[in-house]
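Task 17 of the worksheet. Students: predict the tertiary structure of the chain below and write it out as structure tokens. Keep your answer in the requested format; marks are given for formatting as well as content.
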Amino acid sequence: MRVHTPAHANCIVCSSSNEHGLGLTFRNLPDGSVEAVFDCDQTFEGYHNVLHGGISSTLLDGAMTNCMFAHGIHALTAELNVKFLHPVACGQSATVRAWITRSTARLHLLQAEISQNGQTMATATGKFLRIEEEPDPEPIAEETDVTG
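Model answer:
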């Protein structure tokens, strides 16, 4: 089921129609979080064999945005704080996951992480502001892919 609004249809993180995008497919997990696997292709390298930190930040932000969509909320990133714990290796896949930690009517607090080979490589916290002008996307059912 598509949960993205038309304004999000060309997202660099999760759109299948953006030929320059990352093309991630998020799935909703039973605990309310979302996750996707990223191949960490050499194309996204910063230092030799290390995923660029900007790409890691983009993955974390995109996961949190897709978590909002999975809960039927259209929101924009207001604040993003990233901690890089270990270099993410290129040439092997990594998993990005996000979940809501607290919500009010307009403000939503989320956390996200990138893991590789069972180790947490980067974490993020984010504040997202609900946008009232846009209609909310329809929430997804448990374990349904969130694509865009």
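Marker's comment: The mean pLDDT is 86. The radius of gyration is 14 Å.
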